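wait is this the right file?? whatever heres the structure
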């Protein structure tokens, strides 16, 4: 299988290959990694461009959310050439992206909301947690599941850092019903076969809404997930071992601290229960970045 991986929070460093490149196509059979250089579109005059986040299929191509100011959404053709650039005025800190017909839904993590972009590129607030317009619950992922839209969020912090937000949840957007609670940093909702899978990032596990789970994958931060017929593809980001300022154990890779683990894609032979899944290979991406945000299947090879 070929998959697309987005790299977020990519610092410019002589230690990392391909500065300014945030997308990589991975041939999981050959274990080959191909950088996707988007060329001129990344030389636009935008501030703070340092990564890509949400990925989705769209009109025979792909949607890619960028970490930028203003928030940008790229529509790429199948060959990764840029077909369109959507500048989003209502989105702050774009995270996951999902599609229903010609309607695009983007998580605006910086404003606790979900923004809908219609075919004419007009934006409207589709859902919001509050009216303050700030990142107070860290909503980050969306998925269509059994015909309904679900989101996940960290919940509120108990302290200064996001590592203190340990009561995350998965919620039905239309009804506000909570499907799963008590999740320590949920990410990467993935619906298949009537089940909803997700990463519990700060515990380095993969879970399912029916209670099935994959044990801790040490060390690091699970984010980015594909559940295929026969395999699990799990994105791993370098985690944080201890806070630089306090010396205390922390979990969120966005918090300041000493890094641990690898940036990689781990591939497991899928089993039921998930705990019986077996690691087949790990594709290390340390030379390209430190954090994966999303994984998207491209095609079988």
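ok assuming it is, sequence goes like this
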């Amino acid at each position: 299988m070929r998959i697309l991986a987005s790299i977020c929070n990519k610092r410019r460093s002589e230690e990392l290959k391909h500065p300014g490149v945030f997308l990589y196509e991975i041939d999981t059979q050959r274990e080959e990694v191909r950088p996707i250089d988007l060329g001129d579109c990344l030389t636009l005059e935008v501030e703070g461009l340092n990564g890509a986040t949400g990925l989705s299929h769209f009109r025979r191509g792909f949607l890619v959310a960028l970490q930028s100011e203003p928030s940008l959404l790229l529509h790429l053709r199948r060959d990764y050439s840029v077909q369109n650039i959507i500048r989003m005025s209502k989105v702050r800190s774009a995270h996951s992206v999902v599609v229903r017909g010609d309607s695009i839904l983007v998580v605006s993590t910086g404003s606790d909301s979900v923004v809908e972009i219609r075919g004419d590129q007009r934006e409207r607030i589709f859902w919001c947690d509050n009216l303050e317009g700030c990142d107070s619950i860290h909503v980050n992922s969306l998925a269509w599941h059994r015909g309904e839209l679900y989101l996940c969020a960290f919940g509120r912090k108990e302290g200064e850092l996001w590592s203190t937000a340990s009561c995350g949840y998965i919620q039905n957007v239309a009804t506000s019903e909570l499907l799963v609670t008590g999740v320590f940093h949920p990410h990467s909702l993935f619906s298949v076969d009537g089940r909803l899978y997700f990463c519990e990032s700060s515990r380095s596990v993969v879970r399912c809404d029916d209670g099935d789970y994959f044990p801790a994958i040490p060390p690091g931060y699970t984010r980015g997930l594909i559940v295929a017929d026969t395999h699990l593809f799990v994105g791993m980001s370098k985690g944080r071992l201890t806070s630089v300022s306090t010396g205390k154990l922390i979990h969120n890779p966005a918090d300041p601290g000493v890094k641990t683990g690898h940036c990689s894609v781990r591939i497991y032979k899928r089993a039921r229960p998930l705990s019986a899944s077996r690691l087949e290979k790990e594709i290390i991406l340390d030379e390209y970045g430190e954090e994966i945000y999303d994984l998207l299947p491209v095609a079988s090879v």
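Confidence is low (pLDDT under 50) at residues 242-250. so i think its the right one actually
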